[in-house]
Amino acid sequence: MRKTLYTLAITTFMTGTVLIGCQNSSKKEEAAQDNVEDARENLDDAKEELTDARKVATQEEWETFKASTNATITQNEIRIAEMKASMKKTGKSIDEVYTKKIDDLERKNNEIKAKIQTYKNDTDSDWESFKQEYNRDMDELGEALKNLTVDNK
């Protein structure tokens, strides 16, 4: 009888241990599943924030910006052409450095013009950073044009 009781007790103990062990792994699995779901939600939130950050300009805003840009580029082209014409009119022997500076300004102006023409206003483009970069480039070009005419004696 003792042998039967010991066997029954050991069997009950082993069965209980197995059941308790199974419950812990299923709870761990559920917790891991919850963590995966949370991570997916965080990823979706991050994607939405990125989409918001990459704001696309409205068509009207883009057209206004492009028209303003083209007007500025045209003004720069006129100023560069005037500088070249004044070099020829004065008959002075302008040094090569001055001529090279004018050519560099013309090249920069053409590069900016090309950027505007190739920019695609879509969701893959970052409108705000493009606009900042353009404004910085135009400010630098404007300063260079102004400084070049000041240096012209």
Blueprint (SSEs and pairs):
Layout: H1 2-53, H2 59-90, H3 96-118, H4 127-151
Helix pairs in contact: 2-3, 3-4
SS content category: mainly alpha
The SSE order reads: HHHH
Terminus-to-terminus distance: 121 Å
Spatial extent as radius of gyration:
36 Å
**Major sheet description:** none
DSSP summary, beta strand count: 0
Strand content: under 5%
Helix content: over 70%
Instruction: Figure out the total of helices.
Output: 4
User: Which descriptor suits the 3D outline?
Assistant: rod-shaped
| Overall average pLDDT | 76
Contiguous uncertain segments of 5+ residues: none
Structure description:
With 153 residues, this protein is mainly alpha-helical. Helices cover 86% and strands 0% of the residues. The N and C termini lie far apart (121 Å).
Jot down its keywords.
mainly alpha; 4 helices
In short:
By secondary structure, this protein is mostly helical. Helices cover 86% and strands 0% of the residues. The longest helix is centred in the first third of the chain and has 52 residues, at 2-53.
